[in-house]
Amino acid sequence: MQRMLDVSDDVRAEIGDEEADRLLAGDNSPGSYDCTSCRTPGDPEQERTSTVLFVGDETAVLAFAHATCLPSQVVKVAEEHLQGAVRSITGDAEESPADSASAPRPQQAVLGVTSGLVLLAGELHPALVVEPTGPIARPGATGGGDDFLPLLIEQGFQPLSEVQEVPAPLPGWSVLLAMGRLHAVLQPGSGGGTAVAWWQAHQPLQVTESWRAAANKLRTVLVFAAPVGSIGRQPREDLLRGALDKAAADGRLVAAAMPLAGT
Asked: Which residues lie within the region annotated Disordered (predicted)?
């Protein structure tokens, strides 16, 4: 039976015509697969299937997705994150915490990221909550102070006085959920070039099945951010929501809606 496999021009350019033709002929394509987006089974003999190539500096990983979930495309990922994904696939990686991580900022401040579901207008939305572990100064500033929120507002994040509505989308920004794990929050590159990571997980992070299901349904993630000491590590989503509401009421919360990138 002919396989319904899509190989985009970008993927073909990366893997070469010979390998692309072998995939289309069924020589190297899987009999079945777990969709790299929704993580449910797929079969290229039964449904249209996309080839998705994750590319790092030295490593490339070819994955498969339902065409209804993702088009065939090339997704650029930091090499260390791609290596982490490879280790997770082969079973060599240690499990990361399900809902939090930290990453260095250029000023050596550290961002903490927590995932959770936020109820707005009767619908659960996948959300990421970003809070530094210390004040973040404006680049080049020599004095004290915390410019985290002003910097984000200048980037287009929306100040919130209450958490009631879906925040406005932030053009050019996106959330990378690849192979069912959270990799990065991406921002526009300089001069409109390739998107770069604003935040990256040290290792791809697991998210809950309910979070991923909501993200796949809505194709949008809400990103909330607050200065150090505003949210804290909350063990339950109801406590997280309470902390968000308090931060908003105190004028210490900004937010934006971002599409999923890659998966």
From this structure: 17-46
